Amino acid sequence: MFVKNIAVCGLGYVGLPVSIALARHFDVIGFDVDSQRVSRLRDLDDWTGEITPETLAKSTLQLTSRVEDLKGCNFFIVAVPTPIDERCAPDFTMLKDASRLIGSVLTRGSTVVFESTVYPGATEEICGPELEKSSGLRCGVDFKLGYSPERINPGDTDHPFEKIVKVVSGQDKETLELVASVYETVVEAGVFRASSIKVAEAAKVLENTQRDINIALMNEMSKICALVDINTSEVLKAAGTKWNFMNFTPGLVGGHCIGVDPYYLTSKAQQLGYHPEVILAGRRINDSMAEHVASKLIQVLAHRKRLASTTRVGVVGITFKENVPDIRNSKVVDLYNELGRYGINPHVCDPLADPVQTKREYGITLVEPSMLQDLDMLILAVPHKQSVELVYDKLNQMVAKDGVVCDLRSVLEPSRLRSDVFYWTL
User: Staple partner for 313: which of 193, 346, 371, 426, CB 3.0–4.6 Å?
Assistant: First the structure.
């Protein structure tokens, strides 16, 4: 087995950095079904903000949206999204489509490595058969499967693809070593050889499930702290002085990983007749936080005698996390809608979000920061670096006298706010 040409299918947060890194050492084709995405990348424009125009300009990566351009490749990496549906069940549509697409150009002796998050067993039970059907080849005989879960953290410049240990696995020992050799070429942090594809799949989904449960614990703790009238941040600082205390904070849990991946694990468990209790309890807590926060904010407004038909509320930030432009699966939207149930229609601004996409996806019209004036309540929902500075610099214009500042992530320093402002956080 040898690597002739590599094709990376899916050029989002995961696929693009992987493609760029591999293209420094191999002949790589970056494929995406979205021709506009490919066109923008050719124009050196990565909307995710993960890859700079300079890096794109220097790369030898070949970009295409034409399936036929993948012919001749014998090492495929699949990095497409694996979301959940409206019932919180795994949605394998894009993964199946990608498998069928690759199968149409698959040749004997090829290797197909999946990076998408799935439940244990999905690569061999779902992807393998789809590849077989569209290629007419036999999985494990004519072509081999590998799995290497993505670990890219959008917006985190301290932990790029090359500096995160890569878990790798393969259908057999020979495939494992081939997959490991490819990733070892570009991943400075090295690779970890998992004993099987299922082990690697389970490890990935566990990583984000663990984070989800720990954030749920912090969210529940914040509710208890409120009941006993103490500050959650102060409790966390005190607890954090112990060497083995894990640093998690309360907040809204959105995005494509932490709020989604646990459902892949619970779905597989339920298929096998086991009802996971802790994982689903954590999901219930985190999924209900937007409703909880909205209720608390209404109470704060009422207590401050600022709840009326003329109440003005501003929200800063609508992307799913700080310092990234992606609005998909943003829980700030849930908070916006919950406030709407109380008759409040907040003004929303976000320096990173695309106004056209936000309007199309959620029906929310983004405003300029200058529109946030004389507010009864300002909600810092997503602490982009520039958003935090905006709040500090323009607080006098943004928040009315005796108004409220809601800091969902506890990033602001209350001492830097006006003395008349009521500061609220989880």
Answer: 346
Q: 185 and 298: one domain?
A: no
| Cβ 376 vs Cβ 403: under 8 Å | yes
Q: Please, which residues have CB within 8 angstroms of residue 182's CB and are 6 or more apart in sequence?
A: 3, 6, 22, 26, 75
Residue 38 is predicted with a pLDDT of 97
Report the CATH number at residue 402. 3.40.50.720
In whole angstroms, what is the distance from residue 314 CA to residue 21 CA? 41
Q: Are residues 195 and 314 in the same domain?
A: no
Catalytic residue ranges: 257
pLDDT class of 21 with cuts at 50, 70, 90 = very high
Q: Which amino acid is at 36?
A: Q
The domain of 371 spans 288-426
156 confidence band (pLDDT: 50, 70, 90): confident
Q: Which helix (H) or strand (E) holds 146?
A: strand 143-147
Radius of gyration of the chain (CA): 23
pTM above 0.85, yes or no: yes
Distance from C-alpha of 331 to C-alpha of 319, rounded to nearest angstrom: 9
Last residue of a domain, one of 178, 201, 224: 201
Q: What is the DSSP string of 384-418?
A: -HHHHHHHHHHHHHHEEEEEEEEETT--S-GGGS-
Question: What pLDDT sits at residue 3?
Answer: 83
* Residues 39 and 156 occupy one common structural domain: yes
Q: Mark whether 170 and 292 lie in a shared domain.
A: no
Number of domains into which the chain is organized: 2
Q: In this structure, are 149 and 40 located in the same domain?
A: yes
